Amino acid sequence: EAGVTQFPSHSVIEKGQTVTLRCDPISGHDNLYWYRRVMGKEIKFLLHFVKESKQDESGMPNNRFLAERTGGTYSTLKVQPAELEDSGVYFCASSLNLGGLGYTFGSGTRLTVV
Amino acid sequence: DAKTTQPPSMDCAEGRAANLPCNHSTISGNEYVYWYRQIHSQGPQYIIHGLKNNETNEMASLIITEDRKSSTLILPHATLRDTAVYYCIVRLNDYKLSFGAGTTVTVRA
C-alpha cells in the first residue's frame, strides 16, 4: 500500500511569493488532515477534510492559507503571499475512519521563506 | 483534552527495553491514550493507543495504570532506528491531535 505522498519535499521561496503544497493520501482514505510545525514550535493541526468537504479549519492561521481537495482525492495547500513566519514543515495525514486507528502521515514539505 | 507530562529526554541502550513514562492525571473516563513518534525528517508515526487495558502490537506495549493517571510505552528491544521524539497524547479520539514537546529518545549502541 502506497503511503501518504507529499511534494515538493522542500521549497524555498521569497517573501511575498506563492507556494502550493500537494498531498496525495492513501487511496480510499476519506479523511485528510494538514498539520504544520513552524520553527521552534510544536506540531499543530491546521484543518481536516472529509472527502472534498472541509470539516474543520480552525487551525488555519490566517486567510493567506487556502486548502482544497477537489474530487476528494489529493489536496493542495496554498500560501499566498508567503511570509517569513510561514517557514516550517507542513505535514499531511490521512485516515480511513475518524478516530481510534491512527493516522498515516506523509514525510512533510519543508518550506523556507526568505 | 487532558494535559500530559513527559520527560524531555532519555537514553536507552540498544537491545534493551525502553520504558517511556507519561502522566495524565486529569484524563477523563472516555479519553484514550495515544502514542506517536517522529523520527528525524519523517512525519509522525502512530505507535499504539489504549483506553483501560494494556495493549501490545508489533511495535510496542502500552501499560496503563489502574487509575489511568499514568501510562508507560515499552519498546521491548530498542534499536538505533527507534531514536525519535515520542509523543503521548490523550484524546477522545485521534482527530485533531495536539502534539506537545514529547520525549526525545536516543538509543545508543
Task: Give a written overview of the molecule.
The complex is a heterodimer of chains A (114) and B (109). Chain A is mainly β. Chain A has no helices and 11 strands. In chain A, strands 2, 4, 5, 6, 9, 10 and 11 form a 7-stranded mixed β-sheet that branches. The N and C termini of chain A lie far apart (37 Å). The mean pLDDT of chain A is 93. Chain B is built from no helices and 9 strands. Chain B has strands spanning 9-13, 18-23, 32-38, 45-50, 55-56, 61-64, 70-75, 84-91, 103-108. In chain B, a hairpin with a 6-residue loop joins strand 3 and strand 4 (45-50). The N and C termini of chain B lie far apart (37 Å). Chains A and B meet through strand 5, strand 9 and strand 10 of A and strand 3 and strand 4 of B.
Largest sheet of chain B: 5 strands, mixed
Order of helices and strands of chain B: EEEEEEEEE
Please estimate the helix content of chain B: under 10%
Assembly level = heterodimer
Determine the most extensive contact between two protein chains: A-B, 23 and 21 residues
Number of helices of chain B: 0
Radius of gyration of chain B over alpha carbons?
13 Å
Q: Into which percent range does the helicity of residues of chain A fall?
A: under 10%
How many beta-strand segments of chain B?
9
Distance between the termini of chain B: 37 Å
Query: What's the overall geometry of chain A?
Result: globular
Estimated share of beta-strand residues of chain A: over 45%
Largest sheet of chain A: 7 strands, mixed
